[in-house]
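About this split. The held-out portion is used to measure sequence recovery: a designer receives only the structure tokens and must propose an amino acid at every position. Recovery is the fraction of positions where the proposal matches the reference. Here is one held-out target exactly as it appears in the evaluation file.
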């Protein structure tokens, strides 16, 4: 089991570093859904790894990081739903 948890933590670290590098290089927007998904996924897997190995400060940090990720993802999804609804309301009715 510990090998699996180590792999999860390693993947999480790589995902977080990849997301950071993509945003820092301008190849990805920090306001976009892909970055937020990578950010949440990386933090969540690092939280699992840290908790398993009783690294509580790191687990706590990644718990908060994941929480921020969930909150931000929720805001992005709500914003997209609002934009779609407003676009549908503004569109002319068929046949007019």
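Reference sequence for scoring:
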């Amino acid at each position: 089991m510990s090998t699996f948890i180590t792999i999860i933590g390693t993947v999480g670290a790589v995902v977080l570093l990849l997301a950071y590098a993509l945003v820092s290089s301008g190849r990805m927007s920090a306001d976009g859904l892909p970055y937020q998904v990578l950010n949440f996924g990386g933090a969540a897997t690092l939280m699992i790894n840290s908790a398993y190995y009783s690294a509580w400060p790191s687990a706590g940090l990644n718990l908060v990081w994941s929480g921020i990720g969930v909150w931000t993802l929720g805001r992005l999804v709500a914003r997209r739903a609002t934009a779609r609804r407003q676009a549908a309301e503004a569109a002319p009715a068929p046949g007019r």
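Annotator remark: Residues 47 and 59 are 5 Å apart (CA to CA).
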